[in-house]
Amino acid sequence: MFTIDQIKAAHSEVESGADFPKYIQDIKTLGVKSFTTYVSDGRTEYHSVDGNSVQSSAMYGELVITDETNIDEFKDDLAMHQDGQTGYYRFCQDCARSGIEKWVVDLDGMTCIYYDKAGAEILVEEIPMA
User: Fold this and answer.
1) pLDDT value for 11
2) Rounded to two decimals, what is the model's pTM?
3) Cβ-Cβ contacts under 8 Å for 129 (sequence gap 6 or more)
4) pLDDT of the residue at 18
5) CATH of the domain spanning 4-126, picked from 3.30.360.10, 3.40.50.720, 3.30.1810.10, 2.40.10.240
């Protein structure tokens, strides 16, 4: 079973969204099957291939998620983040402003699904191989 410290070590090498595919491969090697990240405070629940889970603590003070989802603004912010133009916290602020509550990453399916506060799927992305 992996630990939060192992995941933090892998995450410490992520400087922008451009580094995300390598991070996914690194934690998949640790045995992570999926994870859910909550925009409001940055905490993440990691689920293992053997059914166990661990949760990180909050990474920052609480962000207020807007009730109205702005898909176009979110897609623009996501593209900038994936291009390395914004850091993680800025991306989370942008998500909150656009109405994104969380994202769920499925390491088997290699997808990242973004959800709004109502639980609706806003965007499904395929994660490129590192």
Assistant:
1) 85
2) 0.89
3) 21, 25, 110
4) 74
5) 3.30.1810.10
